[in-house]
Amino acid sequence: MGPSRNGGRVLLTVAAFIFVLGVLIFVHELGHFMAAKAVGIAVPRFSIGFGPATPLSFRRGETEYRVSWIPLGGYVKMASKEEQEAMGALEGGELEQEYPADRLFENKPLAARIVVISAGVTMNVLFAWAVYTAVSAIFGRVEDPTTRIAQVDEGRLPAAAEGLADLPFGAQIVRVNGDTIASWDAIYAAIADVTSDRLRFDFADGIDPVIVDIPGTDAQARVDLLGALYPLWEARVGLVDPGKPAAAAGLQRGDLVVRIDGDTIMSWHDMTDKIEPSAGKALTFAIQREDRLEDLTIVPEEVPERDLTTDSTRLVGKIGIGPLRESLHVRYGLLGALGEGARLTADDAGKVWFTLKGMVLRKISPRELGGPIFIGQVSGQFAAAGFVPLIYFMAFLSVNLAILNLLPIPVLDGGHLVFLLIEGVRGKPLSLATRIRLTQVGLFVLLGIMVLALTNDLFRVIGG
Fold first, then answer.
1. pLDDT per residue as tens digits for the range 93-112
2. Is 379 in contact with 105 (CB distance < 8 Å)?
3. By the 8 A CB rule, do 97 and 446 touch?
4. Does the residue 24 lie in any domain?
5. The model's pTM
6. Are 345 and 373 in the same domain?
7. Calpha distance 234→323 (Å, rounded)
């Protein structure tokens, strides 16, 4: 069963990687393609991937549509006499067909060329906005209104956050870094905010504030902190899985567990702490059902559980139940959904820009950079969580792709825009020889970044 499960996970990861990267590359290149067609530039080739074509290729009109063998991006090859030498090999060879002068990229007005080069990035941003808007309009947003902490796992708590270890049961967070907190989702977002230098927690009921000196760039410490805080959910049963020990013993939806083997149960996590180490052992549950108390004997079964923060698996006791939690469902009209989509897109852009700036200023290690293996692994995890989490991840990655493409590196869109801006200032373009040399330098820089990202991926795999 183990190898089969691992095989299924690998297949899901590969499929998710192909889907995520394929959609995002297609969206980006579609922007260039549509803009080029709109201003009258001939487009002889539209490719997902670089290098030689795979058998997945066909021609329609003047354009060849293909999937190429090197899956590290894509391109729209526009008719141009100037770009042949610089990018010919990477873009599947030079073109043989001649095109009228008025359909060549370099003969179009400067403004038209800027629009064409910017269109890929624009499409990636619009895609993210559309995804966030659609999900907000269809599903709204469901939040957990809990702001109280049931317990703190000292074993997972980062050293810098040891001040949180002494919090009393039920401590209520009212502000994080000065922002009012109204849900557990807001607590999660505040802790996960990469732009914060530290975290200040303010509590109700006269509890002294706690300052946690963990910069947002220390991703692992922030993840550990998230995993160490348990929200205060009452031990009331929601889901009862048919065929599992709880259902067999007669536990029902709405039952409140008040004691296990005589020990008082104060919260859902208090209850799981009693169940998980007790696989195969008979436990006596005292439950409140409507206005009466009943005793049930339940024997937890041993099942493997995957820790999403460490990606490790352990065997724990489970009885087949889920919590009945209060939820706050925020719904949006069309205008509200558009605004929420814009807010989420802008928030993603801010996080990506902060990370890039941190790397340039050497506040964030280049080891944080992820490549295709990392993207594939994360895509697989989000795919396993469901379609909505997967497309949320795609939206974030789309914003990421847009901003990275704006870097002023020749080969990327940002490098091409720099060439065009220089042309606008000088009144004439840089010489073709200069652009070719800079493009070659840019290609080496880009390859170096890819090698670094792949190396980081391999270290993560080996280390994991």
1. 566 678 899 999 999 999 99
2. no
3. no
4. no
5. 0.71
6. yes
7. 8
